[in-house]
Amino acid sequence: MTEETSSFGTMHLTKSRLESLSDGIFAFAMTLLVISINLPDKSRIVQSQAYATHLILSLYSDFFHYVLAFLILGAFWLSHHIMIHPVKTLDRIFIWLNLGTLLFVSLLPFSTSFAGDFPDTSLGAIVFEANLLAIGLGMFCQWKYATSSHRLVGAELPDEFIRHVALGTLVVPGISFLGILIALTGNLYSQAVYLMLPFVGFLLHHYHRNDRVSSA
């Protein structure tokens, strides 16, 4: 009876299968992002240099959201790899947390396209930023669940590493939440807050390095 109870929460699923599924969805979502760049119907295209130039310039919002979403999704994928690597075992809750996160990853091409199609409305920005917020919070919940009392990770995993990864997973959600607040005021340039990401990343790296030195 004890063995049945203890094995109930354990999924007979190897970590490599979970990583393969996650990598596939990340790759598929990153590829689909290019669909957010919408060209007009061929019957409306005029074969002229002036029209082609005007068309490229009119797609600035689509290109901006494509590049932004691609880079942030790439950062999420890297964070996911860092987060999954020290996990030793899997259980039902962790797997469903991962699937919930992947649900919002696969939704990002839609929210990117929506934001690009409605650059003059704050709702477009809010949908995009809320999507990134959900992905980041999903990854944070996975990490906190896996590392709480070293539930799914080895006892030898340093506490400073656990703190560093936890803070890292909160960077994009924090900036996204700030962007949503700005967008709610009617500001149409709320997504400019993502330009803070390199600076926040640098500060986080500096904090981690000092934390590691002080605990040595």
TrEMBL record:
Cell compartment(s), UniProt: Membrane
Catalytic reactions of this protein: K(+)(in) = K(+)(out)
Leader sequence residues: none
Cellular-component GO terms for this entry: membrane
Membrane topology classification: Multi-pass membrane protein
Keyword Ion transport: yes
Similarity annotation: Belongs to the TMEM175 family.
Species: Methanoregula formicica (strain DSM 22288 / NBRC 105244 / SMSP)
Protein name, per record: Putative integral membrane protein
Key words, A-Z: Ion channel, Ion transport, Membrane, Potassium, Potassium channel, Potassium transport, Transmembrane, Transmembrane helix, Transport
Pfam families xrefs: TMEM175
